[in-house]
Amino acid sequence: MSKQKLIAGNWKMNGSLVANEALVRAIAQGMGDADCTVAVCVPAAYLEQVNKLRAGTRLELGAQDVSRYEQGAYTGEISAGMLREFGVRYAIVGHSERRHYHGETDDTVAEKAKTALAHGITPIVCVGETLAEREAGNTQEVVKRQMAAVIHTNGHCISEVVVAYEPVWAIGTGKTATPEQAQEVHALLRAQLKAATTHSDRIHILYGGSMNAGNAQSLLAQPDIDGGLIGGASLKANDFLQIIQAGANRK
Ligand code: PGA
Asked: Atom 9 (ligand 1): residue with closest C-alpha?
């Protein structure tokens, strides 16, 4: 039987105390005993709220970023140790929005993954090419470079990370990579991870970029797509639940 898929919602900078409560309750109830791992990566301000709401359910909690530093004079940053105190199991690192708007480099992303792992948090490391890079035929080169930095910095711990392939041109645009386009890059990433660790098979490689209730099944059916990182559709309980069902192993 194939390994459990990981379906992770990325709320980005969305939510409110009232909306979160309704959404988390609906997800926790609707997912039932679906045979997959489900997580929501929520804004830091809501970690405590969502951690309480999910108590006693199978829903896992994630953050959207983590500091590369342990503690100290880093105004605005949140450390991995702090995240742990709120039940955080996953932290997205290197999302393209952080690379783009906050100038995060491959090196920063690799360091963040390392700090997360040191605190028992699984980093969801995002890689992906822009439209210009794809059109110039540089997709493979870009994602390999982004992945190589994380492999280099994390050594044998690389088998503990989750990878998310998120083509930048597909994020929030409604344009999804075709299952074949996504699988091609996932296979490339798997081969790169295989060269770095004997445990590459257990690494989850997620697809992200306009995944929704309609396209989830065909994407998740690809041999190297082990789950999804879902933005917009994770804010709507029904859509997210349909994606969860598409990712669940049949009993
Ligand atoms: P999207 O976002 O599903 O809204 O395209 C995915 C992501 O950015 O993680």
From this structure: 231
Residue nearest to atom 3 of ligand 1 (CA): 231
Q: What is the DSSP-derived secondary structure letter of residue 170?
A: G
Count of beta carbons in the 10 Å neighbourhood of residue 139: 19
Distance CA 178, CA 65 (A): 28
For the entire predicted model, the pTM comes to: 0.97
Residue count of the chain:
251
Query: What are the backbone dihedrals phi and psi of residue 37, each rounded to the nearest 5 degrees, phi first?
Result: -95, 135
- Structure confidence by residue, pLDDT tens digits, 157-209: 999 999 999 999 999 998 899 999 999 999 999 999 999 999 999 999 999 99
Please give the pLDDT value at position 131: 95
For ligand 1, the distance from its centroid to the CA atom of residue 198, given in whole angstroms, is: 30
Residue 186 falls in the annotated catalytic set: no
| 119 a catalytic residue | no
Q: Which atom of ligand 1 lies closest to the CA of 97? A: 8
Structure tokens at 35: 């045979």
